[in-house]
Amino acid sequence: MLFQFSGFCFLFLTLILFHIIPARFRKWTLLAASVIFIRWQGKASGLFVISLITAIAWIMGMITDRLSADKKEKEASFFSALTIILFVIILFGWKYLFWAAGLLGFSVPDRVRGIGIPVGLSFFTFQAISYMADIRLGKINSEKNPFRLSMYMMWFPKWMSGPIERTGDFLKQFDECGNTRLLDSTRVLRSLSYILWGLFMKLVIADRVATVVDTVYADIPAYGSLTLILIAALYSVQIYCDFAGYTNTMIGISGLFGIELTQNFRLPYLAENMVEFWRRWHISLSNFLKDYVYIPLGGNRKGTFRKNINTMIVFLVCGAWHGAGLNFIVWGLFHGIFNVLAALTKKTRAAFLAEGVAGHIITCILAAFAWIFFRAASLTEAITFIKGMIPSLNSTGLTAGLVLNEELLLGMAVIDWGIALISIAMLIVFDVYAEKNKKILPDIICAKWGITSRAVFLTIITLMILIFGVYGSGDEIRSFVYMQF
Q1: What is the pLDDT at residue 145?
Q2: Coil, strand, or helix at residue 408?
Q3: Which residue has better confidence, 107 or 321?
């Protein structure tokens, strides 16, 4: 959801309508609102694509289920596999078609290139794949009502960037959402806490830091080694606050309607190694890859060597899923290597490198290094950035760019640097506090804090969002990073 005034109006009107109509019609109101939202934000083409994939999943799911019921296992497996392959072709074909054409020297007409990738394609396609796979595995029955399946695919808070939900759990909540009470103080407080903390991460931190990151990435050779190292660290903060901020906000919005989304982030930068990092970062994607790629490949059941190969395959798929380009493949490859090394290190005398304080520091460094390939526009740009981080290979010096230019430092005003540093310090303190309590901060606020503490904290966060949030209008509003995937 873009942070437009019209977006907040849409949410407010949907919430009011949801609570004033009879309970038995409420879930269908949410489906209608989701369709309207997708048409609005994703345009007619976006609505058409998600509707087409939903229709295919609905028809093929019923066929697969019927064949399984008739003990025609081979035919059921064929139709299920065929549908999943079709979804994979749609997803990766759409992502890589233009990139491959350019690589092979073919010109793509601007009219065709202008179509672009539908918003949320990666997320709702993976949901369709999990739906078909779960039917074949006997975890769920096919959905006979196309409108219920449509709600699973189209629920607007998760449409753009997930989380990647599972059919059974989600539809159960969908069926029960009509019982949601407007004045349920516990639910409203929890939802509000998630929304405000998410908006703080996105508007106060991520979008402010993004100004500096974008400035440096626009002309990498002009900056010194220390400057580039600083930017690598700041981008780690930006993407975490952007994506986790999105997830927290959408969990809060869904909660207002009685639907609880999967928690996608559990303090990933406090992990002790890269294996643990991926249990905390983009959790719904990690679980998807584990259940539908890693385990079918054999998981860890066929020895250490095969386990490591399977891990590498999973992360290559992960990299390819995120975007078209060798930089994403290399990003996935590095995470595969980091995961393999972390698992192997735990069995040696070097185990201290994958645990404790050393593990925390190394994990943050490795994640920040890999993010360079993720942020860069190409593999060449990523290599240029990394070379620039090495003093002996950077001819501009250590601190080039770290000077005030018309009251701006790396494209951002000094006062904004102060706001960014204070906000990041708050984030670190509260993340460490949440880690010690084994919960996400919004849940701690609701479960452990008193009325006064809650009121003071939420008031301060609200004021920071209103006063220090980075806003704009129209095209000036910065979209979520993961919307492009």
Answers
A1: 95
A2: strand
A3: 321
List Cα–Cα distances, 188 to 27, 63, 173, 181, in angstroms.
Answer: 19, 41, 17, 10
Is the separation of the CB atoms in 236 and 269 below 8 Å?
yes
Give residue-wise pLDDT tens across range 269-312. Answer: 999 999 999 999 999 999 999 999 999 999 989 889 999 999 99
Please give the mean pLDDT across all residues of the chain: 91
User: Which pair of structure tokens corresponds to residue 245?
Assistant: 């901020």
Using CA atoms, how far apart are residues 396 and 389, in angstroms rounded to an integer? 11
**How many other β-carbons are positioned within 10 Å of the β-carbon of residue 289?**
21
Neighbours of 99 (CB within 10 A): 15
Task: Kindly tell me if the per-residue pLDDT of 474 is higher than 50.
Answer: no
> Residue 232: what residue type?
A
pLDDT reading at 483 higher than 80? no
The predicted pLDDT at position 456 comes to 96
Which residues are registered as beta bridge partners of 413? 408
User: Phi, psi at residue 372, to the nearest 5°?
Assistant: -60, -45
Half-sphere exposure of 169 (CA within 13 A, CB side): 11
- Cβ-in-10-Å burial (0-12, 13-18, 19+) of 12 comes to exposed
For the CA atoms of 247, 34, 321, 381, what is the dihedral angle to 10 degrees?
-70
Determine contact, residues 124/160, Cβ cutoff 8 Å.
no
pLDDT at position 471, please?
Answer: 80
Residue 116 neighbours by CB distance under 10 Å: 14
Whether 115 shows a pLDDT value over 80: the answer reads no
Q: What is the DSSP string of 289-304?
A: HIIIIITTTTTTTT-H
Domain ranges of the chain: 19-179, 186-272+355-484
Structural Rg of the chain based on CA atoms? 23
Helix (H) / strand (E) containing 286: helix 283-289
Distant-in-sequence, close-in-space partners of 248: CB < 8 Å, separation ≥ 6: 194, 195, 197, 198, 201, 265, 440, 442
pLDDT for 33: 96
* pLDDT of amino acid 410: 93
What does each C-alpha distance from 168 to 172, 175, 245, 265 come to in angstroms?
6, 11, 26, 21
Nearest to 157 by CA among 16, 50, 262, 5: 262
pLDDT for the residue 407: 83
